[in-house]
Amino acid sequence: MAVNIKLIAEGQLQSTEADLYTVPSGKTALIKTITLVNGNTSVETINIYILKSGSIKRMIAPKDFQLGVQYMAVLDDEFTLEAGDKIRGITSTAGKVDYTIHGVEK
Fold this sequence. Notes:
By secondary structure, the protein is mainly β. The chain has a single domain, classed as Jelly Rolls, CATH 2.60.120.340. The chain contains no helices and 10 strands. Strand 4 and strand 5 (57-59) form a beta hairpin. The radius of gyration is 14 Å and the shape is globular.
């Protein structure tokens, strides 16, 4: 069986912590990459977490990660998530950091 990695979420980080992706009901997900691009004219401070359903959030990037002007960061550790699990994020300036999440839902 072929594994089809696809774009499963995209958007812009906000200045208040928010959900970037939630695994749909009845599904599991394998997250392959999270890409962050700073489109601002200043450095952005970013935090990215996984929130397992019924648990506490866990950081998946260094705390207060600094992303330079017009720089890109790729988080390429693989994460397995269950239905209801979330990837959450926050940045210092709303609407300045684009993100994409690629993976497999099954």
